[in-house]
Amino acid sequence: MYRFLAFYIKYQKVFHVVLRILFAIFVADIVRLIKAGGETNRIVSEILIALVLALVGSVTRNDKEK
Q1: Residue 17 belongs to what domain range?
Q2: Which regions span the lipid bilayer (predicted)?
Q3: How many of the other CB atoms lie within 10 Å of CB of 50?
Q4: Total domains, the chain
């Protein structure tokens, strides 16, 4: 556990860049689902949008703490 924390602290900037890239891919998938349409895709996209908003809130809250 402590090794992981030390590794995370050492490479924190890299982790944040990777997380932002994954977040951008996630948002692109949501946009693709919304454009595809359909009832099931609409429900899934609404759930994913709620998750994205929660993630954005947590990311901005973490950035303000620094």
Answers
A1: 2-65
A2: 14-31, 43-60
A3: 10
A4: 1
